[in-house]
Amino acid sequence: MPAEAVAASLGCGNPTALAKLQPGEIVLDLGSGGGIDVLLSARRVAPGGRAYGLDMTDEMVALARENQTKAGVENVEFLKGTIESIPLPDNTVDVIISNCVINLSGDKDRVMREAFRVLKPGGRFAVSDVVIRGDVPAEVRRSMELWVGCIAGALQETEYQDKLQNAGFESIDVEPTRIYQVEEARDFLTAAGLDADEIGPQIKDKFMSAFVRAKKPAAACDCPPGGVDLPCCR
Ligand SMILES: C[S@@+](CC[C@H](N)C(=O)[O-])C[C@H]1O[C@@H](n2cnc3c(N)ncnc32)[C@H](O)[C@@H]1O
Questions:
Q1: Which site in 18, 118, 129, 197 is 20 to 30 Å from 109, CA atoms measured?
Q2: Is the confidence at residue 191, as pLDDT, over 70?
Q3: Smallest Cα–Cα separation from 132: which of 184, 211, 206, 209?
Q4: What mean pLDDT is predicted for residues 183-203?
Q5: What does the alpha-carbon distance between residue 181 and residue 204 come to, in Å, rounded to a whole number?
Q6: More confident: 180 or 66
Q7: Under 8 Å between Cβ of 128 and 14
């Protein structure tokens, strides 16, 4: 990978390693930033597959395209747009990945619905994100600096599961990949003007990077004439 792509990585996990990508698959990275996960995915789905990166800023799309050129990877396309309104047709993607972006969205229900829409039946949602276990002090949620730092917009684990389920996903699983320790949070809190000693104990073991998996149900059947009682015919 080009050094610039690695340096631009702002993720909180490694979705490409965890998503078990196969040659021939179509992958979409929500909030692709400098593009490293897209470029890694493109190699894993070759030959025959393709990786899309989606980001809302011109700067990140331009940086990702530069990194693509440097990496010499061809089965890649970087799209400009938002994860709340994905510029791809229904039922066209095998795997959605994302690395520390969904927590930044102001409309996470819409993101989940859009992810569901563009996935093919049987398609996988396989993202890394920051997830919260239990309640978090209001000061932490209010801090815009923490928001930009990929934390204060995070969902609670159960909220994440509920939103995925409401969007239609099944086989939902949240697997912690790293639990942040109080001392690691100290710099975040201090930079946000918060008293780390006071807040620190209250956030102990509550913030984690997690690998969130879910599946769009496979098409149940081809609806035969007169088969109105089958779930796929309703
Ligand atoms: C924390 S960075 C993560 C970038 C990349 N996934 C990585 O691992 O390095 C967040 C990225 O998501 C993009 N982003 C944030 N909200 C977005 C949204 N609603 N729609 C599209 N892109 C978004 C930002 O422009 C930024 O590039």
A1: 18
A2: yes
A3: 206
A4: 76
A5: 6
A6: 66
A7: yes
Going by alpha carbons, the residue nearest to atom 14 of ligand 1 is 31
CB 173 within 8 A of CB 129: no
The two structure tokens encoding residue 20: 């078990």
The tokens for 149 are 């730092």
For residue 140, how far is its CA from the centre of ligand 1 (angstroms)?
A: 21
Ligand 1 atom nearest to 82, measured from its CA: 20
Q: Which pLDDT does position 148 carry in this prediction?
A: 41
**Which CA distances in Å does 92 have to 124, 130, 181, 208?**
12, 27, 40, 31
Mean pLDDT in residue range 209-224: 83
101 lines ligand 1 (CB under 6 A): yes
Q: Which of 101, 105, 188 to mutate to test the pocket of ligand 1 (most atoms within 8 A of CB)?
A: 101
170 and 217 in contact (C-beta within 8 Å)? Answer: yes
Residue 185 — pLDDT band, cuts 50, 70, 90? confident
| CB of 55 shorter than 6 A to ligand 1 | yes
pTM of the model: 0.87
Residues 6+ apart with CB under 8 A from 8: 33, 34, 35, 36, 63, 67
